[in-house]
Design a protein that fits this description.
Number of strands: 52
Number of helices: 1
Number of domains: 6
Structural class: mainly beta
Distance between the termini: 76 Å
Helix content: under 10%
């Protein structure tokens, strides 16, 4: 099969071209040029490949088993789809679609001679199966792979143009072209042939950034090399507690902050920080409990002040304080010996035993009273007494603490031995300090002024009890008067203010009383009018100066050309710029202005562009 196929192609070529042994070649070399294109965003260039001859014609571009044809790019070729089809030959391109699909004009295709209407012929597989939109167009180089693109020698498109060039193809890509091709043709009827001709590398001149909005815009460039760089902006939304440090500055209040600098490309970069500052919170809880108390997962069995640290809903520190009073449960035991049944806490007991009575004490805690009862013919009793004055017991007066015994016979005829356990207790004095924002009720009386008050009563032992109240009445207070000058707006205690005025913020102080902060706010506007074009032609005296219209008292302005050179500085807001540098009108083009002015006691900075048109 290999030999038969190769022979068929050779016979066909001989029939068409009347080939004999190749003569001296008129081939000078391959020429690659660029064609200006539009509409591309990735720096695609459109190349045209020509064969340059000193005489004669080109009749065939071919590849075979030992001499492959290959044109490649380091990226991919651009090959426009039109109604689901792709053009591989120049003659297959629909030129009527250029009006509504301009990119079709820069399509990738091959040919032999420049014509959108008269197509070259193909023989064998010339690599059109995947269309010309990959990274490689190749054929030949394998068994039975002989193929070619050709025209008959009588076709005038084989003849070089006035510059000695025959068009071989158009290739649009943002990569680098390389590869090699094979050509043959006739010169005065004598065949010539060139094999494995390398694709030359083209050096693109006058390339650069062609976008006027870029920092590095090049007026002299007509081919964009994707080197354009631009001014950048960024916005950061941050929520922090207490303070936040950004670009070397620490902020303690919420607001919008701007940081101007220059990026690595030398362009302006404006960073905006939208900052919300949240504050920590505190709370105090007063609790009384019996024996133990569980709070925030911990169990406490002693009175005291306890602290629990966590974070609030804003992610800031939250400190909770528990003032805890632990009241213990009370247990008491009463031993009684009797020769008759006894009644104890409403129940009658007639047999020896231990009996329990459950109730609550004055603190609301459990009180357990135990009766150890002995029923005996002979009765022995012990009486514990606590008194704050001497007592008379069985006709005898006792004035000192001690244990005393009295022997008698009870009403039931049982021996009765009575024992007195006497405790003489003195009077009790207590002092309670209280701080309050409002009048309080203490022992049934309302107090509304600071002072020391005394309450006399008797304790559970019947003794005098003197209670002292040390009362402090704390009133509402104004904690601060603040005066702030702001530009456009001011954010304070969760509210954004845009107008000058006096504003109050009320909270509670450490005593729980009202605390008022008064803000005197002065809001200044930074409204200025800045034109974008002026015409310093001195002909019509209209729009001859570039002014930044404002009523600012502190003002500075700089003008820079596109190379960053300062061509004007002024502190006179009414002077403006007459378009001159060193007493000469500057060239038409885009210039950068920068101003610094004071608004709300803070320096403000703005930048922009002005177009000078003479």
């Amino acid at each position: 099969m290999k030999k038969t196929f190769a022979k068929a192609i050779i016979v066909l070529f001989s029939f068409f071209f009347n080939y004999s042994a190749p003569a001296q070649s008129p081939f000078i070399g391959l020429v690659v040029t660029t064609v200006p294109n539009t509409g591309f965003t990735n720096c695609e260039l459109t190349y045209r490949l020509y064969a340059e001859l000193s005489s004669g014609i080109v009749t065939q571009m071919f590849g075979d088993e030992t001499r492959p044809h290959s044109i490649v790019t380091t990226t991919t070729f651009f090959n426009q789809d039109l109604f689901g089809t792709h053009a591989n030959l120049q003659s297959e391109v629909n030129t009527g679609a250029f009006g509504f699909l301009p990119a079709l004009e820069w399509d990738t295709w091959t040919t032999l001679g420049d014509s959108y209407t008269s197509g070259a012929s193909t023989l064998g597989d010339v690599g059109f199966g995947s269309n010309l939109f990959g990274s490689t167009w190749s054929f030949g180089g394998t068994v039975n792979s002989d193929a070619s693109i050709f025209r008959l020698p009588t076709d005038p498109l084989c003849i070089p143009d006035a510059n000695g060039l025959v068009l071989l193809g158009q290739f649009t890509t943002n990569g680098v072209l390389s590869g090699y091709i094979n050509l043959n043709g006739l010169d005065n009827g004598n065949p010539w042939e060139e094999n494995q001709i390398p694709i030359p590398q083209i050096q693109v001149t006058n390339s650069g950034c062609t976008n006027p909005l870029a920092c590095n815009y090049d007026l002299t460039a007509y081919v964009d090399d994707c080197s354009c760089v631009y001014e950048t902006t960024s916005i950061s939304n941050i929520t922090e507690c207490d303070s936040y440090t950004w670009n070397g500055v620490t902020y303690t209040t919420s607001g919008a902050y701007t940081y101007n600098t220059t990026n690595s490309n030398g362009c302006d970069t404006i960073a905006t920080l939208n900052l919300v500052i949240n504050t920590p919170t505190t709370s105090t809880t007063n609790e009384s409990a019996c024996n133990t108390y569980t709070w925030n997962g911990s169990t406490y069995n002693a009175s005291g002040a306890y602290t629990y640290n966590t974070t609030n809903s804003n992610g800031c520190d939250s400190t909770a304080t528990l003032n805890l009073t632990i009241n213990p449960s009370v247990a008491s035991t009463t031993p009684i010996t009797s020769c008759v049944p006894i009644t104890w806490n409403g129940s009658t007991y007639s047999t020896t035993g231990s009996y329990i009575y459950l109730t609550t004490n004055t603190n609301g805690c459990d009180s357990t009273a135990t009766l150890n009862l002995t029923i005996s013919p002979s009765v022995t009793s012990t009486t514990p007494i606590t008194s704050c004055v001497p007592i008379i017991w069985n006709g005898i007066t006792y004035s000192t603490t001690g244990t005393y015994t009295y022997l008698t016979t009870n009403t039931n005829g049982c021996d009765s031995t009575a024992t007195l356990n006497l405790t003489i207790s003195p009077s009790v004095t207590s002092t309670t300090p209280i701080t309050s924002c409002v009048p309080i009720i203490w022992n049934g009386i309302t107090y509304s002024t600071t002072g020391t008050y005394t309450y006399l009563t008797t304790n559970t032992n019947g003794c005098d009890s003197i209670a002292n109240l040390s009362l402090t009445i704390s009133t509402a207070s104004v904690t601060a008067n603040i005066t702030v000058d702001a530009c456009n707006e001011y954010y304070w205690n969760g509210t954004n203010y845009e107008n000058s005025g006096v504003y109050n913020y009320t909270t509670t102080n450490n005593f729980g009383c009202d605390s008022t902060t008064i803000l005197t706010l002065n809001v200044f506007d930074d409204e200025i009018y800045i034109p974008n074009t002026f015409t310093p032609n001195t002909i019509d005296n209209i729009n001859d100066r570039f002014y930044i219209h404002n009523n600012l008292t502190e003002f500075k302005m700089w003008i820079y050309n596109r190379w960053g050179e300062e061509i004007l500085f002024t502190e006179d807001g009414q002077l403006g710029w007459d378009g001159k540098y060193k007493n000469k009108i500057c060239q038409n083009g885009l210039y950068v202005w920068r101003i610094i002015f004071v608004c709300g006691e803070k320096a403000q900075e703005k930048t922009g562009h002005i177009f000078l048109l003479k």
